[in-house]
Specification:
The complex is a heterodimer of chains A (480) and B (285).
Chain A (H helix, E strand, L loop, with lengths): L8 E6 L4 H33 L2 H6 L4 H16 L4 H50 L1 H16 L3 H21 L1 H9 L1 H8 L18 H11 L7 E6 L13 H12 L13 E7 L6 E6 L18 H8 L5 H12 L6 E7 L1 H10 L2 H4 L3 E8 L14 E7 L18 E6 L6 H4 L2 H13 L3 H12 L11 E7 L1
Parallel strand pairs in A: 4-5, 5-6, 6-7, 7-8
Antiparallel strand pairs in A: 1-8, 2-9, 3-4, 3-9
Helix pairs in contact in A: 1-3, 1-4, 4-7, 4-8, 6-7, 8-9, 9-11, 10-16, 11-13
Chain B lengths: L2 H22 L25 H12 L4 E10 L7 E8 L9 H13 L8 E7 L5 E6 L5 H8 L13 H5 L3 H4 L2 H11 L5 E10 L8 E8 L5 H9 L8 E7 L7 E6 L8 H8 L7
Parallel strand pairs in B: 2-3, 6-7
Antiparallel strand pairs in B: 1-2, 3-4, 5-6, 7-8
Classes of the chains: A alpha/beta (480), B alpha/beta (285).
Chain lengths: 480, 285
Amino acid sequence: MSSGTLPPIESVSGGSHGVQAGYEQMLALAERYERQAGDFVEMAGLGAKVMANGDLLESSILSPGSFADAEVQVLDATTGVNGLTVRATGIEADALAVRAVVAAFKASDSLSRHAMEMLDNALGKLLFVGTIVTLPALLASGGISYAYYSTLSPEEQEALKAQIAENLGQFLHDHPEVAQHLINGGGGLLESLVPGLGLLNPGDGPIDQATTNDAARLLALLVGNDTDYSVTDLGDVDGGARATTPGSLEQLMQQLSATNDLDASEADADMHGAIQVQQVGEKPHERYIVYIPGTDDMGPIPASSDLARDMETNYQLIGGMDSAYGRGIEQAMVQAGLTGKDVMLVGHSQGGMVSASLAADPDFTRQFNVQHVVTAGAPTAQVPSLPDSTHAIHLENRGDAVPLLDGEDNPDQPNRTTVKFDEGSSDVADNHGMNHYTNGAAAADASTNASIRSEIDRMRDDGYLSGGASGPVQTFVITR
Amino acid sequence: MTAGSGRLARMRWGVGIIVVCLAMGLAACSNPLGQQPSSARVPTGCGGCEAEIAALVTAIEQTPGVRAVTTTRRTTKGVPQAYLRIGLSLAGKDVGSTDITSVVDAVAEAAWRSGVNPLDVLVLEVTLADGYREVERFLLGADRDAYEERWGARPAGSEWSPVPDEQVGAAGCERDGCADLMRDIAREVARVAGVEAVLGAAYVSDSPTNSSSADVTVRTDGTDVADAVAEVVWRSRVTPITLISVTADLGDDSFPETTTFQVDPDIGRDHDRLEEQWGPRPVEE
């Protein structure tokens, strides 16, 4: 709980009340229409059968007038202008219309996404061309700026750097969509930088051009694309997540934060790569929460090639590739005895990326029944679809650059809810902190939004947010 | 500029560079190929050092004030330096009445004089009878000169791993967690009305995934002590801190309640209110 008020929730997309869920409900309605129309057609056939009934025909001699009247009524009700056949045709047409509307909406969404991808790709290429064209001017102005900068005192230089960083941070907070489009243009820019290399084309995105994911994949290849891992079982350690089952999304984040703090000091390098596995409920009906923290080394050039949670893993995950961290988590879960068990994956930053990636991996889900995924401050759009049996909630703080690194909005799936809240400031690094996501989770707990409520209620029904004492918490360290 | 704000500034630029890297896809942002694992620079020494650690445990268990050695963990692979982590259960009842400093110093000296080689970083995880827990870190390699002056040279043949840049660059609480200052806070918090026991007082460094904070965990009688505990931290010399976090445990199976105060002078929304309430912090923020 923060000492102040909860951050406002800016938007909720996807989930049980999202657009995709609406499409599915409309299609279900169309199906019902069609079934109804089918029933009507079948019932209309009864009219002819009734009139052809032998006993009825024989009795017509006794009262030819009323028989003729009945015949007219029955045929009118079944095959007449207001009869079942005509009505069935109308309902069938309604069903077709509903399907056509859904198809049109989907096509519009797809077209819009294609158009946006093309625009972003072109923007990236334009940036390259623009940079080349304006290079002399850029160099000249850069030289003048540097000359001015060098005349400043060290304190003034620090202040200027801080001011620029703050301005950039404020811009990012105020216009996250611009940063997202800029990142999405990364593929186009890279295509311009390495023309003819054939490394990127054709892209794997919705357009036949290089995308952000392709750019990330290339970066992963350049840094070695290493997936070798090592897992050390530390058993039950002091510190980290406590042996108490969380009772809310906020407490789930507090547990993740505690796992994250296992390597709280520069002197705790031996705990880098630590994840924790909490048993919830009694055996043999227990389930497990896996707490997966994020990046330890944020430098674009990994400082230590031993760390599994570095930029190489980030490039791999955005590029949709296997990573040492992901493989290590899978092995740790096997070692912890989670094979065949119900699990919830909870991850921050890179931990959220790898959670989504593992939940969509058939090899992983063959071993573990991933019921829930909770991500905080993680780009997840690079995972286009999660299985229907997996429910995910994605928390994103406005002004946090990290969730934007996928270059796209999260996919709208009925089982996938994205919650954007605003506890951001001009400090980009601070906006990514676990403390903000704990507060954002508290805001989600308090929200009445139907998609959010549905996800949290489901977590509670599945026993992950039951509160009270829990089973043991095991700790594993994953390194390369 | 403090070390913390320096790290924060580096992180800001780091995040900026990542955005630019992904936006621009610059191959220049990539890693030089063929990098060796940093743990390859850790001397082999006695490796896992099972026999040496067993001898050290025996020595530690004879140290006055130590009830038991609960765990030991030796790490030389996947890390830039050689680590030894020791869990210590002390005989003391609580943080207010126990001289933790002299016990952990004696244990650290025993480790310094032991045959565990190399030994660059010693981490002691201390627990007391009432559940109080703290972690004390000794950067033996980085602060080698100071320790040699204090305890003399390590046993002949002892080796050292290169000191990582992160330890050289870090200063103050960012470097070693300020165990002494945090322990002082714990002792003062123990006297706050409504606090039945202090269960922990830890400094958390700034990292890519969280801001620097001073975290205090207490067991209470149900009284709301968050403000009073936060005031103790506010008046301390622990720095840099972006957050003060107070966790109140009722001692049952319920999930403890955590209250955070955002105290960074530039972006912390609680800073001005707390400064008005308690005056300026005694250290440069």
